[in-house]
Write a structure and sequence with these properties.
single chain; alpha/beta; seven-stranded mixed beta sheet; six-stranded antiparallel beta sheet; 37% helix; globular
Length: 610
């Protein structure tokens, strides 16, 4: 047994040394060399054993395309994000593209790949490496001119007629992470009419096979030049398209507090609001500029506790400094008390919304993604941009609220559900509007076939301005939707782990002993999503439908459990639906819904052993 262990340790060290010899980056070579030296010196010491454990984690396999591409902690080795992994990935993608893209006719230029990146650590390096690999493979590469929101890259794929796009970003992950999203354009076999969407099976497996076939990183051609740098025309074209989601004569008088959470959204959001004619947002100064260390937040995700604290403080200070309305005779752009708070995640493809709420500890309440998704759908219907004979489908994911289906049915709009992630939503036939509960909204699929936090911010600002002009508000509209369709209350049980086996054990336990009731509501169906269905491809997840009754006050309920595709989390999505007879019944319904959701979370945690 001891000899077997020693042999395994030597084999691991040998693999690490082979990687070290092929790594083109001095930074990660030095990091890995230190680990190898420590592990090889004396594996029996605490330091040696820790180094071996770290090497084992880094060489446990290779990164695989998940819900939103590749994502991992920065560092050396095949299970981390680094230049070696990026170069191999880019080379595999280039091989996939050259095999499947055939320029039409002799003398046609090779396919174009457009590359964007955010402001995280190493993003610019990974983007430049990708451009060099594409150029070395005989493709044309265009690099966006600076760190920009992911929606700009998704737009540029279609705008430039690219056969593929790459975005270097880890979105809202912790500072130590980075990632790599791959999009396919219309010039690649099998992507017609869905160009500009992220990859899905079988393309992800086919690209992975090409990546695995790359013999060595140092053998991949990487010229020092030959790619193009996009001009400002691409950003101007995106802004023109983005502001086109608004009605020309709609209200604009709304005061917004905005934070990009140390990401890349500020310049683009500010330009879009100015072009649209909105008052300039009041920006959270401490979070305005890109900073890959995200110093003011534990996690740069608007959904995480504390992430919005500075935005709420800025809103409270602004409210204290104003009377709430412009004084008589004051200029039209005089400051007023904030109406809403908006936030983008670091790559600005998601949008968070908060509304004033005197009952909340901060004086502001974050709206759930499901609430914002319903508001945007209702806005599109109420403004006549959807429905009344216009074409287009509303879509959301299986983990999002079922309220969108009710709004669509009432408006006579087709409705669809997909697996989690915009790579699936983007492929809905005839898509007009899509959202997912994790703050992602696609309001203009013909321009950006992905979630877009910029256009979502514009539409929410337009809706808030219109409601304000009518003496109403976003919370009031949510109340109207509850009366019309029932209160669809959602919540989430999310467990972050250091050991992924905890997630696997929880899923196994639920499969072996599925709950028969949650919060006293009987489970009427338990579906293992890994088996797939006519409507959905297989995915690692479980779905439970629960029955309600008059005694419980619940019309129905639903639970979905799945491992996150972007973070080390087990995520459980909960929804309860309660009838609401009149506006004055809404507070009691919300209280009842909160109680039921709390009980469901408790019972589900017990059933899963988490």
């Amino acid at each position: 047994m001891q000899q077997d262990q020693q042999d395994a340790q030597q084999e691991l060290i040998a693999r690490a040394r082979a990687w070290l010899a092929d790594d083109p980056d001095p930074q990660t070579r030095a990091e890995l060399a230190a680990l190898v030296d420590t592990a090889a010196a004396d594996p029996s010491t605490d330091k040696g054993a820790a180094a071996l454990d770290e090497l084992a984690a880094r060489f446990a396999g290779t990164l695989q395309f998940g819900t939103a591409g590749l994502r991992a902690e920065l560092g050396a080795g095949p299970m981390r994000m680094n230049r070696a992994v990026v170069i191999k990935t880019a080379a595999g993608l280039a091989s996939y593209l050259t095999r499947r893209h055939q320029p039409a006719g002799a003398g046609q230029r090779p396919g174009l790949v457009v590359i964007g990146y955010d402001a995280r650590h190493r993003s610019a390096d990974f983007a430049r490496d990708t451009a060099a690999v594409m150029t070395g493979a005989g493709l044309r590469a265009v690099l966006l001119p600076r760190p920009l929101p992911t929606p700009v890259l998704a737009f540029a794929i279609r705008h430039l007629g690219a056969i593929a796009g790459v975005e270097v970003t880890a979105s809202h992950n912790p500072p130590r992470d980075n990632g790599y999203k791959v999009y396919l354009g219309d010039g690649v076999a099998g992507t017609a009419s869905r160009g500009g969407a992220q990859i899905v099976p079988p393309a992800d497996a086919e690209i992975a096979a090409e990546i695995a076939a790359v013999a060595g990183v140092r053998e991949v051609p990487r010229p020092e030049s030959g790619w193009e740098i996009a001009g400002e025309e691409v950003i101007d074209a995106y802004l023109e398209r983005a502001t086109g989601v608004l009605a020309p004569d709609s209200a604009r008088a709304v005061q917004v507090v905005y934070t990009p959470l140390h990401g890349v959204g500020l310049a683009t959001v500010s330009a879009a609001f100015a072009r649209a004619g909105f008052p300039a947002p009041l920006v959270v100064t401490e979070q305005a500029e890109p900073d890959p260390d995200f110093p003011t937040v534990a996690f740069p995700n608007p959904e995480e506790p504390g992430a919005m604290d500075l935005a709420f403080a800025t809103a409270r200070a602004a409210a204290a400094a104003t009377t709430g309305t412009a004084a008589p005779g004051a200029p039209a752009n005089a400051p007023t008390s904030p109406d809403i708070v908006l936030a983008n995640d670091p790559d600005a493809d998601r949008c968070a919304v908060a509304v004033p709420d005197p009952a909340a500890p901060a004086g502001w309440r974050m709206l759930r993604g499901d609430e914002v998704g319903a508001l945007l759908a209702a806005h599109l219907v109420r403004s006549g941009r959807v429905g009344q004979g216009s074409a287009g489908t509303f879509a959301t994911t299986i983990v999002s609220s079922s309220l969108l289906s009710q709004i669509a049915a009432t408006a006579g709009v087709p409705y669809a559900e997909t697996l989690t992630g915009f790579k699936w939503l983007a492929r809905v036939d005839g898509l007009r509007y899509a959202y997912e509960e994790a703050l992602g909204y696609c309001t203009d699929p013909a321009g950006v076939r992905d979630k877009d936090g910029i256009t979502a911010a514009l539409l929410i600002a337009e809706l808030a301005a219109g409601l304000k002009a009518d003496g109403s508000s976003l919370p009031a509209l949510l109340g109207e939707l509850a009366v019309a369709h029932g209160l669809h209350a959602t919540d989430q049980l999310s467990v972050r782990v250091d050991d992924l086996s905890v997630i696997a054990a929880a899923m196994q336990r639920l499969r072996a002993q599925p709950p028969t009731a949650l919060a006293g509501l009987p489970v009427t169906s338990a579906q293992d999503l890994s088996l797939g269905s006519d409507a959905l491809p297989p995915t690692d997840g479980l779905r439970y439908h629960l029955a309600g009754d008059a005694t419980s006050g619940v019309r129905s309920a639903r639970v979905i459990v799945r491992p996150s595709g972007t973070e080390p989390k087990l995520k459980c999505y909960l929804e309860v639906v309660l009838p609401v007879e009149a506006p004055d019944a809404l507070p009691a319904a919300r209280t009842r819904a909160a109680d039921v959701l709390t009980a469901v979370k408790h019972d589900l945690a017990d059933a899963a052993g988490i």
